[in-house]
Amino acid sequence: MTRFLIVPIRRIAQVTLGKMLQSQPAGPTDMEANYLRAAHVQPHGRLLTFDDDQMMWFAADELRNLDLRRGDVVVVEGGAGFGRSAYVDEDMPGWGFQNSIIRIRSLDHRADGRFLNYALQSALHEGSISLVCSVATFPHFTAEKVAAFPLPAPSVGEQLRIADFLDRETAQIEALIEKQEKLVQQLQARRTETISSTVRRGVAAETRMRDTGIPWIGWTPEHWRVPQLRRIATMTAGAGFPIEEQGKDDEPYPFYKVNALGRAEADGRITARYDTISATTAARLRASVVPAETLVMAKIGAALLLGRIRVLCYDSCIDNNMLAVTPRAGVHSRFLYYALQDVKMDLLVNPGAVPSLSERAFRSYQLPLPPFEEQQAISAYLDGQTTAIDLLIRKANAFIELARERRAALITAAVTGQLDIARKEAA
User: How confident is the model at residue 159 (pLDDT cuts 50, 70, 90)?
Assistant: First the structure.
């Protein structure tokens, strides 16, 4: 609900779609220029610029018509970020914009760009933009849809008052969010360093150390070994998982795909059972059944570089984009779980456009390995430390989520006139 007049955007602003990507000049007068694209427009109204900003070719008149000025609003046309908007707070001379971006430029004395941006953020959060886009396929918030999209249109003076109020209030909320985001980053770095230092040096206070001579390990307790991974674990490749075999939940063996890595519990364990298969089906698919407590990871694609190591809770099968690592006798599964998180995956990637694990290099990778009793002690220590850190991370992320919800609710209340700005400022 709103107490303001509702009008289509074309009544109060000019709507312009950017140009298709042009990688070569089409004529002698064409010029190369930076261009704004969807990646620049981030959630919650943030407009980013990059050090490696890309360039494309424009005709001189195109670059004049597709310029970016202070007061413009840019909107993402399609894809995962459709409907995101951001306010251009300073002129961007020499820049144009691609056809993944729509520019909204306020007509004189009819609208304020900051207000339009806040109103669009509200519409996206409330789901109004999704209603006019086909989200079942590849969603597009086309220039035509943007031009026809209805927004509240109070007087320009009221828009300026609302935008000034929201600038102040959201800046305070965003400062709190930024502080919590930095805290999360610090906690994640602390978690990584705790694991790394502990699996290399242990938890004993007084221990004689030696230099292993291995760059990624450095110094370890002198009684520890540094075996190759193939000496302490067996590696098992996954198998293809045809779609017609998927969707069953009453067979004995879960068949996990790479997306299961992102669904694990905070302690790294994959507890969900779905897409199960029988022993007969596993044999027919030539899918090895690996035992519970086996560690699994991605071995191809961007997921490999995330370095996510997970623990199977059941005898299971994995797909051919994953690798299973099963500890041998004398190796504690939980210790190996932490030790593998310290592996420098970037040293083990085959060259090529798509990251893929060099399994030969992985098998030969050396890890520090203490006696079994120390492995148990280190695992217990790291379980306690990471649980405490993860709790702090969850609390910080919960605060961030609540703050973002408060920001969105405040924006909606302000741009729809539900919030009396004059009374609130006078209070």
Answer: very high
pTM: 0.85
Residue 57: Cβ within 10 Å count? 20
What is the residue extent of each domain of the chain? 6-153, 186-386
Q: How far apart are CA 69 and CA 90, in angstroms?
A: 6
Domain 6-153: state its class. Answer: alpha beta
Phi-psi region of 191 (alpha: psi -120 to 50; beta: other; left: phi over 0): alpha
User: Residue 312's closest CA among 335, 332, 292, 298?
Assistant: 292
Please choose, from the candidates 273, 326, 275, the residue with its C-alpha nearest in 3D space to the C-alpha of residue 297.
Answer: 326
Tell me, what's the pLDDT at 136? Answer: 66
Task: Return the percentage of the chain with pLDDT > 90, whole number.
Answer: 86
Q: Are strands 269-270 and 310-312 parallel, antiparallel or unpaired?
A: parallel
Fold match between domain 6-153 and domain 186-386:
yes
* pLDDT, the chain, mean: 94
Residues 33 and 56: their CA atoms lie apart, in Å, by 6
For every residue of 245-286, DSSP letters joined together read G-S--SSSEEEE-GGGGGG--TTSEE----SEE-HHHHHHTT
Domain at 186-386, CATH from 3.40.50.20, 3.90.220.20, 3.40.50.2000, 3.20.20.380: 3.90.220.20
Residue 376 token pair: 């148990």
Element spanning 235, H or E: strand 233-237
Mean pLDDT of 210-226: 94
User: Which H or E element spans position 47?
Assistant: strand 46-47
- For residue 35, the cross-strand partners are 96
DSSP state of 313: S
Helical ranges in 55-142 per DSSP H:
60-65, 113-126, 128-132
DSSP state, 290? B
Distance CA 314, CA 273 (A): 9
Question: How far apart are alpha carbons 210 and 63 in whole angstroms?
Answer: 63
Q: What are the angstrom distances between the C-alpha of 31 and each of 92, 250, 253?
A: 16, 62, 60
Spell out the residues 6+ positions from residue 384 whose beta carbon is closer than 8 angstroms to its own. Answer: none
